[in-house]
């Protein structure tokens, strides 16, 4: 079940409500920097940076350097494909009484 193991980082991202809020902001606004995210959340700048680090390592967001600023945007296409594979495997191997 390497697919399940591959999904663990994105599940970690999705397990936290603050990261949900960051994902929603990026979905609504496209790219944003840490200051913009912090201004829209009830979190400190270090807390936002911590969440973004986790999200970057899980490939949930990407970062682009523009001048002195780093802008973050959603980048979950590959991770969604992995989760789709996991769902397909679960459908294939789970007992039919779960339908």
Describe the overall structure.
With about 100 residues, this protein is an alpha+beta fold. The protein has one domain: Winged helix-like DNA-binding domain superfamily/Winged helix DNA-binding domain (Arc Repressor Mutant, subunit A, Orthogonal Bundle), CATH 1.10.10.10. It has 5 helices and 3 strands. It has a 3-stranded antiparallel sheet. A hairpin with a 2-residue loop joins strand 2 (about 60-65) and strand 3 (about 70-75). Helix 1 packs antiparallel against helix 4. The chain is elongated. About 15% of the residues are buried. The model has no long low-confidence stretch (mean pLDDT about 90). InterPro entries: ArsR-like_HTH, HTH_ArsR_DNA-bd_dom, HTH_MetalResp_TranReg, WH-like_DNA-bd_sf, WH_DNA-bd_sf.
Characterize the largest beta sheet: strand count, sense, and whether it forms a barrel: 3 strands, antiparallel
Shape: elongated
How many distinct beta strands?
3
Strand content: 5-15%
Strand adjacency order, main sheet: 1-3-2
Report the helical percentage.
Answer: 55-70%
Low confidence ranges: none
> Any idea what the CATH architecture is?
Orthogonal Bundle
Q: What Rg do the Cα atoms give? A: 16 Å
What's the number of structural domains?
A: 1
End-to-end Cα distance, whole Å, is 22 Å
Keywords: DNA-binding, Transcription, Transcription regulation
GO molecular function: DNA binding; DNA-binding transcription factor activity
Pfam family, one: HTH_5
Protein name: Arsenical resistance operon repressor
A few lines on this structure:
The chain is an alpha+beta fold and 99 residues long.
